[in-house]
């Protein structure tokens, strides 16, 4: 595995467009493999621009052969505006005929936080039984100003598991479900997306600190790690 591939763009619009072009090109190449293509979506404000751009470019993708999961989810009711899957459905999934979508559980499913994480772990285990490596073809991740990725926060520890429950997120809402760091790092490709100067310090630390001190610095793809950045997020590199 080589070092991270840094891709700078003038603004968030060009950033989202460039990354969407690459995501669609990847899907066109991976859906023909046995089992199709597995991708993990991210949340956050820039993800909405990204998902809309992917939807606009989705012609020619065999969407029926795509399996979609999430890196993390807020453990709130399904109709809550904070849900990543609701935003992704509005911006992307209602516009393309994805074959399989594995949303993370919510309280509406009649489970608690820990049980919800265990349920999603079962989903992942079934996928890994079909094809264990790479676990995913692509994981897309945002980054918080504190350097968190998915719902894995600095200073927080979790049990050794595929999917973990976060009951005390420093960023509301506090209850979340997240893929574990070990599982994220079993993806063939990890592609970060970040926009805005408020992300610059976390991006700098994640890219340059050795050994990594931030969760985002630990998230690495088996074959490739990319950072899609606008000028603000890249300003300290």
From TrEMBL:
EC number: 3.1.1.31
GO molecular function, one term: 6-phosphogluconolactonase activity
Record's catalysed reaction(s): 6-phospho-D-glucono-1,5-lactone + H2O = 6-phospho-D-gluconate + H(+)
SUPFAM superfamilies: NagB/RpiA/CoA transferase-like (SSF100950)
Pathway as given in its UniProt record: Carbohydrate degradation; pentose phosphate pathway; D-ribulose 5-phosphate from D-glucose 6-phosphate (oxidative stage): step 2/3
Record carries keyword Hydrolase: yes
Entries under Pfam families matching the protein: Glucosamine_iso
All copies of domain Glucosamine/galactosamine-6-phosphate isomerase, residue ranges: 10-227
Protein keywords: Hydrolase
Protein role: Hydrolysis of 6-phosphogluconolactone to 6-phosphogluconate.
Name of the protein: 6-phosphogluconolactonase
Organism listed in the record: Nocardioides marmoribigeumensis
Gene designation: pgl
